[in-house]
């Protein structure tokens, strides 16, 4: 009723105002009888301009973050994740029917013209990520350690940094699935030690080039050429695409000569056999809408002097290739991801078996808050040979597993 009364009073005031403004009754009569004498309508006021959006605040000079990652995996119809020859077929999820402390990760980032990053990984993941020849397999790894210098469109990195290759990354919270893909473990490197220069031609397109010590190698191979990396990256609202290549001299095996012993009685020389290694990696990701995202990753690589000829000399090369596809749907706090891939190890150099290895994975992720992430994953691996062993000791060509992962980010 108060609103009705107020509206009625306001209407009366607006109606009476022009009447009271007339000086005489004659003027009022003239105004009503002569259309041309009517007062013109008042001009509409100009709309108030919308305030300009506030610019995004610059990142803090120093940023400290990290996460803790734990999991439990159950393998069905098999004794373990291992191949029959005793090597692990999975990359990080290697323990069967026992809880795993995957990683405790710390990242310190310095932003600005002169910056850098120091990343430390503790836990079982650290033993997988550890670079040669400094790998000590005690559950500690300096995963990234570099200085950066940014000027104009150029950014220079010097030190140890993550590879450009692959659709997945070293840090589990940034991936769609709990288990890593076959390509992540067997087709591409993890880290490099060297220099990398990025030229951001515009907001969408970048060119990357660098020189480093090779694949997961902080010291270098002692002979042969260093590894050259080159990449192109493009991104817009819905599409992200990149292609990168690596070419250089690599060890054909990660081992040591027993003939060279240090003062502590530990072999300290490389195995000695080297060859040219080449890798081409392409990743394309497209966002189909607010819910669906699809990703494709293709890799092809080769290694010279990888295998022995009939006379026992390491002169035969090896090659591998593979394709992985991801489809992910996110609604509120729940993400459902499907992954399918195949990997051709044409000579058995990367996996110890000459095989076509396939896998399919379905992952259900729930993030109740920005700091918590839970994943439930089912996965099946198959091969055209029989690299796994069943519970009763019979060679088999398939491996099924179920895993649960919990992550706390800080």
Describe, in short, the structure shown:
By secondary structure, the protein is mostly beta strands. The protein has 4 helices and 20 strands.
Helix percent band: under 10%
Number of distinct helices: 4
Low-confidence stretches: 1-46, 255-263
| Mean pLDDT figure | 85
Strand order of the largest sheet: 1-2-3-4-5-6-7-8-9-12-13-14-15-16-17-20
Tell me the total number of β-strands. 20
Give Rg in angstroms. 32 Å
Strand percentage, roughly?
Answer: over 45%
Shape: globular
Verbal overview:
This protein is mainly beta and 410 residues long. Helix content is 10%, strand content 51%. The protein is built from 4 helices and 20 strands.
List the helices and strands and how they pair.
Elements lengths: L1 H19 L4 H9 L28 E15 L22 E12 L3 E9 L1 H6 L10 E12 L2 E9 L19 H5 L4 E10 L4 E8 L14 E9 L3 E13 L4 E6 L5 E4 L3 E14 L4 E17 L5 E18 L2 E12 L9 E15 L2 E12 L4 E2 L5 E2 L1 E12 L1
Antiparallel strand pairs: 1-2, 1-20, 2-3, 3-4, 4-5, 5-6, 6-7, 7-8, 8-9, 9-12, 10-11, 12-13, 13-14, 14-15, 15-16, 16-17, 17-20, 18-19
Key features of this structure:
410 residues; mainly beta; disordered N terminus
